């Protein structure tokens, strides 16, 4: 028998070795086939960010964007100012949903470019401004508005030289160009910037005589678009004839087509309450550059030259907070809880000793009430579902951004992807909300009401605030006002796609078995003893919200700057790290505060767990108010509308942050409470 068993074992071992060899051979063949297919593979570009080559002499489209200012969140249409219009009149260009929601408006312009064709002192038009138009232009100039333009998806930027505190000079860029320059220190008078010098940097692609000759055509890739504005009071002889603009035969004493603008030409003073004629001219300079097409956005993303160091400081600061909290949680879990559970669960103790152990540690005294459904249990289930939706949207959006799918060159993609992910996260939102609604059975919960509120409460509040702000912006004729058709499309998107997905998730959640607590709930609630002042609801919640806010406040500064000061935000890797640290911090601070609450024999932990980490949103809103007062200097003429818009959007941001952090804290506390009470032996 022993010999037979040994022979069988050897046979099985031989078969395993043969099977292993076959698997390795198959894997090697598959890998070889994959490597053989690599030369045949084709790369792809994201829509809107693919390189575009221009042949010599080809006409280019220069697009006019909105008027923006650091002194107000309001944006205005480019043609709110009587600039030169194209030959067939201005025409709005198609935009995606994200661009429309962000207030972007793109239109054709009167400036004509041709590849590798440099021109000096080309006349765009001559406009006669009424006294009212002059006063409106003055208001825009006083509010430091800048005109934005685009060429080949690159924003026009002005080259600026700064000096740091040590006196070192560095080059940076400012988006757009100033409408006017002040004529004195008090900025009471202005010069009209009516002459633009466009510098187009290009990279030549020559394929002749190379292996790419049959695959790729030669051409020019645009890798830079600079704009410099200046003021010139143009002079001409005789009577002005608009036909010279089309024929390119306008002769100006102050601007020569061969040498450019006269250095000694006087500047055009902006008059007050008077009519004036303005001649707009421009230069086009093509300059060869060694910058590769893939690196052409680097100059825009390096506009905040000191940001990397501050970001790393933020990460280190957040990590210290995280380590501190982790130490506290480890101490509670490994020392106090293990000691308590050991003493409480010892079977060889006398009944008197066991009662003494119970009295020493108060969290075990409330085992019969800790899973009692809270007040407004249905509303809590709705907020839990909304938290799942916002957290899932945030994680997916930031992950896509880290992978490079949401670069600043793909305009409007960030908002569009956020909306899509929010809609698709309706399934897990409805599912989780239904699970907790079913767990709170008998606490006034209703399935249909729960599902409808999960689908409408959070997005409904956001939409109402957004709609009110949209009416205000529309009244001020700002481009941030979303057209009525887009609002209807958003509503259809919400009710035709988001609502059914939430109902689907809710249906799946109600089908599964209810989550049962590890201990039974007593019929009569236990009386809660008088709490010390710092363990009461409001002080406890406010203390718990400080640390999650401390993790994100530095990153919040850059996010607010990108929103209100029209900067590009591109450090999504830092944002992902901060999000991970924020989630862990919210979980740990809520567990610590919940443990202290249970030790004081207060079993009303459900809502407090949600508010403990969610309270960081109140600090976020307070910091945003401080940022407005110290960093954003609102123009006097637009104060009321600007304040409403700023605080309206910050309420939306704080509301979303409250739901996200509140859910993370609650779900962590929920599993913590289930774990510790499942470890207690109850007679």
Which features characterize this protein?
683 residues, alpha+beta, 18 helices, 17 strands, elongated, disordered N terminus
Distance between the termini: 53 Å
Helical run tally? 18
Strand content: 15-25%
Rounded radius of gyration (Å): 33 Å
Quaternary class: single chain
Structural class: alpha+beta
Uncertain stretches of 5 or more adjacent residues: 1-9, 14-48
General form? elongated
- The biggest beta sheet, please? 6 strands, antiparallel
Q: Overall pLDDT, averaged?
A: 80
The count of strands amounts to 17
- The residue fraction in helices comes out at 40-55%
Overview of this structure, please?
By secondary structure, this protein is an alpha+beta fold. 50% of the residues lie in helices and 16% in strands. It contains 18 helices and 17 strands. The protein has helices spanning 2-37, 97-101, 131-142, 243-247, 298-301, 307-345, 351-360, 377-402, 413-424, 426-439, 447-475, 484-511, 537-544, 546-564, 572-599, 606-614, 616-631, 639-678; strands at 53-54, 59-69, 72-76, 107-114, 119-129, 146-151, 154-155, 157-163, 169-175, 177-178, 180-182, 190-192, 195-205, 219-230, 255-256, 260-261, 276-288. The strands form five sheets. Strands 2, 3, 4, 6, 7 and 10 form a six-stranded antiparallel β-sheet that branches. A five-stranded mixed β-sheet has the order 1-14-13-17-5. A two-stranded antiparallel ribbon has the order 8-9. A hairpin with a 3-residue loop joins strand 15 and strand 16 (260-261). Helix 14 (546-564) packs antiparallel against helix 15 (572-599), helix 14 (546-564) runs parallel beside helix 17 and helix 15 (572-599) runs antiparallel to helix 16. The longest helix is centred in the last third of the chain and has 40 residues, at 639-678. The protein starts with a helix and ends in a 5-residue tail after the last helix. Residues 1-9 and 14-48 have low confidence and may be disordered.
């Amino acid at each position: 028998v022993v010999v037979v068993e040994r022979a069988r074992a050897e046979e099985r071992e031989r078969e395993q070795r043969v099977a292993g060899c076959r698997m390795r051979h198959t894997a090697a063949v598959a890998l070889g086939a994959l490597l053989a297919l690599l030369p045949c593979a084709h790369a792809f570009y994201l829509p809107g960010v693919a390189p575009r080559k221009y042949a010599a002499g080809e006409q280019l489209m220069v697009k006019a964007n909105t008027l923006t200012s650091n002194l107000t969140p309001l944006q205005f249409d480019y043609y709110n100012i009587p600039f030169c219009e194209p030959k067939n009149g201005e025409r709005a260009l198609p935009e995606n949903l994200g661009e429309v929601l962000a207030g972007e408006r793109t239109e054709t312009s009167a400036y004509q470019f041709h590849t590798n064709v440099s021109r000096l002192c080309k006349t765009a038009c001559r406009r006669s401004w009424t006294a009212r138009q002059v006063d409106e232009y003055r208001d825009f100039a006083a509010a430091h508005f800048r005109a934005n333009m685009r060429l080949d998806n690159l924003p026009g930027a002005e080259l600026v030289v700064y000096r740091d505190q040590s006196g070192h000079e560095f080059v940076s860029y400012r988006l757009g160009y100033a409408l006017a320059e002040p004529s004195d220190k008090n900025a009471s008078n202005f010069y009209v910037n009516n002459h633009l010098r466009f510098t187009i940097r290009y990279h030549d692609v020559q394929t002749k005589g190379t292996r790419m000759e049959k695959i790729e055509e030669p051409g020019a890739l645009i890798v830079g678009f600079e704009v410099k504005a200046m003021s010139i009071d143009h002079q001409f002889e005789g009577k002005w004839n608009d036909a010279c603009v089309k024929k390119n035969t306008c002769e100006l004493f102050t601007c020569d087509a061969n040498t450019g603008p006269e250095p000694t030409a006087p500047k055009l003073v902006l008059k007050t309450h008077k009519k004036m004629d303005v001649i707009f001219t421009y230069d086009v300079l093509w300059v060869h550059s060694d910058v590769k097409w893939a690196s052409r956005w680097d100059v825009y993303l390096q506009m905040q030259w000191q940001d990397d160091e501050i970001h790393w400081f933020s990460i280190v600061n957040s990590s210290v907070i995280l380590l501190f909290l982790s130490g506290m949680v480890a101490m509670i879990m490994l020392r106090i809880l293990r000691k308590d559970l050991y003493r409480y669960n010892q079977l060889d103790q006398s009944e008197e000793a066991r009662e003494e152990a119970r009295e020493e540690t108060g969290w075990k005294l409330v085992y019969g009430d800790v899973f009692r459904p809270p007040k407004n249990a249905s509303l809590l289930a709705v907020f839990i579902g909304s938290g799942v939706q916002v957290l899932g949207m945030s994680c997916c959006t930031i992950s896509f951004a880290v992978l490079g799918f949401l670069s600043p060159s793909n305009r409007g993609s960030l908002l569009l992807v956020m909306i899509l992910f929010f809609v698709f996260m309706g399934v897990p939102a409805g599912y989780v909300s239904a699970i907790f609604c079913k767990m709170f059975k008998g606490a006034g919960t209703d399935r249909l009401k729960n599902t409808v509120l999960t689908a409408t409460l959070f997005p409904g509040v956001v939409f109402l605030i957004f709609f009110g702000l949209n009416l205000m912006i529309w009244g001020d004729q700002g481009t941030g006002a979303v057209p009525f058709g887009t609002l209807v499309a958003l509503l259809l998107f919400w009710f035709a796609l988001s609502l059914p997905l939430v109902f689907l998730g809710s249906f799946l959640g109600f089908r599964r078995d209810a989550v049962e607590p590890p201990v039974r709930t007593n019929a009569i609630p236990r009386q809660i003893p008088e709490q010390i002042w710092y363990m009461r609801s409001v002080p406890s919640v406010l203390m718990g919200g400080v640390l999650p806010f401390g993790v994100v406040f530095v990153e919040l500064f850059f996010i607010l700057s990108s929103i209100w000061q029209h900067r590009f935000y591109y450090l999504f890797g830092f944002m992902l790290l901060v999000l991970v640290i924020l989630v862990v911090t919210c979980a740990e601070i809520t567990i610590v505060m919940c443990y202290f609450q249970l030790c004081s024999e207060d079993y009303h932990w459900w809502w407090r767990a949600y508010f403990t980490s969610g309270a960081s949103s109140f600090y976020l809103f307070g910091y945003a108010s401080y940022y407005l007062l110290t960093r954003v200097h609102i123009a006097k003429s637009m104060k009321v509308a600007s304040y409403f818009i700023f605080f309206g959007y910050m309420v939306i941001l704080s509301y979303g942050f409250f739901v996200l952090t509140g859910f993370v804290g609650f779900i962590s506390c929920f599993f913590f409470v289930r774990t510790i009470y499942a470890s207690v032996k109850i007679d």
